[in-house]
Structures are given as structure tokens and as C-alpha cells.
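hi! just following up on the protien thing from before. the input was this:
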Amino acid sequence: MEKRVVVTGLGAVTPVGLGKDKLWSSLKNGESGIDRITKFDAHGFDCTIAAEVKDFVPEDFIDRKEARRMDTFTQYAIAGAKMAVEDGSIDMDGVDKNRIGVVLGSGIGGIETLENQFRVMLGKGSSRISPFFIPMMISNMAAGQVSIVFGARGPNQTVVTACASGTNAIGDAFRIIQRGDADMIITGGTEASVTPIAVAGFCSMKALSTRNDDPKGASRPFDKDRDGFILGEGSGILILEELGHAIKRGAKIYAEIAGYGMTADAHHITAPAPGGVGAAMAMERVLADAGITAQEVDYINAHGTSTEYNDKFETAAIKQVFGQHAYKLAISSTKSVTGHLLGAAGGVEAIAAIMAIQEGYVPPTINYKTLDPDCDLNYIPNKGEKRDVVYAISNSLGFGGQNASICFKRYE
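and the predicted 3d structure came back as:
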């Protein structure tokens, strides 16, 4: 018999603040975390704005010596995990650590370390490369280090599916607990890719907004005048727990995971399939897995990147799956506030969907000013609204044509 899986802790490192409360407050109030790039001199770049994490002090969460041996994406993961464990009131000495797992997603991993060490090699020679270079850079190290911090010896893996990584990680963690292989999993996504080479690469693809004179208005999902996404960074971490285990320890339950769906476009390395057919199939699968009808869904936290084709085709996919109910749905893209956190996006946006259920409030899509005829659904423009949310879906769609949808429901 499949186990029921609930969410019992939330932690976040985001461009709008640390912790779920600061994240949720900014999302509700539409307070953007996008500004000028400060991590490096972006003069001469086509895009000079990003959603950087601010006021993050690694030593607040990690021993100084250890922190120096970690890429920033790993630091974000540990900080988010510690906040989630604290939020979940989890006594790690009171649980069976052999049945506690870690499943994290990261799209790019330690690109900051790779870039820095390549400069060292070019400038000083190969003998000056740090012995910590490889273990700092590899994408699985965030999950590995989180497991070390908490002594979590259960299932441990890293998911790399570009911008779908965080959602795929949550879905995979859900399956592991559902089939009885773990009691609790620390899951979500982490990313620290606001670096010169990453920004230059996305600029070269013409993927980023060049609305450099209006940073806070640059991310405008579903708006006719959208011109690209804004690169973000951070982590969104959830504690997933088998229901009986959570009840036994008296945990606060935020929501239950109802279903999970994932598909591939099998179409193009970066462009979504026309009509959003892959995204539509992922949503159809999540509905089937949850055992609910399309009409029962109240809110969709859309992938909503603020790029021409993503927003158009995701809208088409929602219409295909939900029919006339698509026009009754509350849909928003919180990337308008946080920017696009790549592999961490799914984690942060899952928190947004869960808080919408918890508080009966749907956060807005800010900077929505001009109607696009291809994007004509209710994107909760500019101002959030109170809504009774029983079922919420979070979508993540990644380069390579990888699509993931997770469905949360109110715990009853």
C-alpha cells in the first residue's frame, strides 16, 4: 500500500530574503528582488541585472573553515536545509537517520568554483588548482554535504534536469517515501549561477531580458512586452515526511503531496514544443496520479519565465488540459518577483504553492501591463487575491525539453 506523504518543514534562501516568511511576504506583496548585478562587473554585458541573494552570511549556518571548502550553491542548500529542519521542529537525534534521505536538484552546480579555478589555472598554472576544486564543483555535493551535516544515511541523490531540477527532486523524494524506502527526505533545489560565464552564456542565447534601466520591472511573465528572463539564485528546501511518522512526532503539516508527473518534449534542446504538448502531458499525468479532475485544481504556480515561447506554450498547455476551467484557475508566476532560480526554482515555487494553500491567498504576477492575445488567462495581475486553495500545481519546464509538475493539496 502506498504511503501518504506530507510537507512538514520549509526553508528558503532567496533574492527577497532568507526563510519562508520573508519569501512569502515578498511574493504576496509583489516586492521584487531584482536589481543591478553586484557580484561582478557586468559592464559591457547585454544584461546587467539579476536576482541576487542579499545579506547571506555563510558563517551564520556553516563553520567558517568548512564554508570556504564549499561552492555557494552548497552553502545555500545547507542554509535552506537548516531552516527547513528548524521550521519542522525536527530533533535529528530522535529519528532513525538510516531512514532520513536527501534528494536535491541543481541545474548547473558549482559553476562559480569552475570559473574561479579556471582563472587560477590560466593565471598561475595547473599546480595552483585547489585540491577542493572537484568536490566543490560537482553537482551532487550539495546533497552530499547536507547528508553529512544531519547524519542522514538514507536515500541520497541529485537531480539535474535544468530548470525542472527542483520539481523533479521533490517528485522523486515523494516516490521514495511513497514506496516505503524512507521516513523523511530533505528535498528541493539549489543554485548559485550569477557568474560572468553563466550570464554571458544566457546573454549569447538571447534568453535574458535587456530591460537594464528598469530592473524591478524586467521580469514580466505573460505580458506582451516580455523580452526574456532574469537570472536568479538561492535555494528552496522542503521536508517531506511519511504521514504516520509526522503524526507520531506531532509535526505541523503544511500540505500533502497528491501527485507527480514528468515528461519530455523530445523536440529541441532549448525551445519548448509547439503548443506546450510536453507540459500538457506532465499536467495530465499529475492529475491522474492525484486521482482528481481538472476542475478540482484551484491554483497553478506556472513556470512563467517571461520568455516569448515559454509563456505562450505553457498557456496553451493549460488550456489543453483544463479546457474552460483554465479561465477560472488562478495562475501566477512568482518569477516576476524572484527571477528565475534555474534548478532551485521548483523548490522555491513549491513553497509558494504550499503557502497559497496554507493561507488561502494567491500571490500575483507583477509587471503585467499589456495583454498578449496568446496569454489570455487569469495570471493574478499585479495584486494578489484571497482564494480558497485546496489543490495547487507547480510547473517546471527545463532545457532539453524536460517537464515536471507536482500537485499539493490541503491536508485533511
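The mean pLDDT is 98.
The two ends are 19 Å apart (CA to CA).
cheers
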